[in-house]
Amino acid sequence: MNSIIEKNLEKMTSNNDGDMPPLLQEESYGGNAGFWKGYSCAAANFHYDPDTGEIIAFGNIQDLSRDIVEKYPSHFFRVAADFFKSWKKRIVDYSAPKYVSAEARSILEETVEEYNRRHGFDPP
What we know:
Layout: H1 3-13, H2 20-26, E1 35-36, E2 39-48, E3 55-58, H3 66-71, E4 74-81, E5 89-93, H4 102-119
Antiparallel strand pairs: 1-2, 2-3, 2-4, 4-5
Helix pairs in contact: 1-4
């Protein structure tokens, strides 16, 4: 598997600053991100390298370093949580950013697919 996808998956499953799980612990599920097939959703904002598709950091703009915010564009995943049974999450809404290389687009899409395959709950 591509090393950038592996790095992205690490950021999506680890509990360090700039990773997805700590961000989602602070987010409000079912708020602005709404619901998907009865599951509460939250937005996972991230900054990424538009040439490679590497996710640099997850976080809201006020919580990230100015260097990251100014250097890297931002995007988001809409993440549904299965609070009823498995406590797993699933990326349910993702569309590639407008200004991204073809390679980066492919890497981000494959990252979503692999995350859902390895870590996501099965949709109803």
